[in-house]
Amino acid sequence: MELGVIEKREQRFTRADILRKGIALLVFVFIFAVILKRFNAADTFWKGFRDSYLIWLIIDWYDALVLDCIWFCHSKKVRIPGTEDMEEYKDYRFHIRQSCIGMLLGLPACLAVGVITAIL
Q1: What element of type H or E holds 82?
Q2: In this structure, how many other beta carbons lie within 10 angstroms of the beta carbon of residue 65?
Q3: What gap in Å lies between CA 5 and CA 35, rounded to an integer?
Q4: Which helix (H) or strand (E) holds 84?
Q5: In whole angstroms, what is the distance from residue 114 CA to residue 57 CA?
Q6: Burial of 55 (0-12, 13-18, 19+ CB in 10 A)
Q7: Domain extents for the chain?
Q8: Which UniProt keywords are listed (predicted)?
Q9: CA dist 63 to 52, 68, 69, 71, Å?
Q10: Is 47 buried (19+), middle (13-18) or exposed (0-12) by CB count in 10 A?
């Protein structure tokens, strides 16, 4: 906000933002369940949940380890101008902690994929 890159908001998410993101989440969960059922032969809750969460973990760990810890922490080309002195750029614990939060955030979506896979 100090640099003028983003604007200050009183409310983090508006009701319209939450509704739009909720609908998008449901659509993606349904599409993902259909894809897992069709191409991975996931016909039970456990197979749908397991396969979707495994994919979620691979993407989450790739983001945390390769993109954040290896590339982002060591390359000055990907930094926002004016933020070069921020400690988060080289704080590995920050990136790993965010990855753990991402792992927990994936559970509800993957549980929903498992339920829809079992229903289909």
Answers
A1: none
A2: 15
A3: 38
A4: none
A5: 15
A6: middle
A7: 15-119
A8: Membrane, Transmembrane, Transmembrane helix
A9: 17, 6, 9, 10
A10: middle
Are the C-beta atoms of residues 45 and 118 closer than 8 Å to each other?
A: yes
Instruction: Note the pLDDT tens digit of each residue in 5-60.
Output: 666 666 677 888 889 988 998 898 898 888 888 888 888 899 889 999 999 999 99
Measure Cα distances from 104 to 7, 42, 75, 85 in Å. 29, 22, 28, 30
Quick one: 14 exposed, middle or buried, by C-beta within 10 A (0-12, 13-18, 19+)?
exposed
pTM over 0.85: no
Cα separation, 32 vs 119, whole angstroms: 13
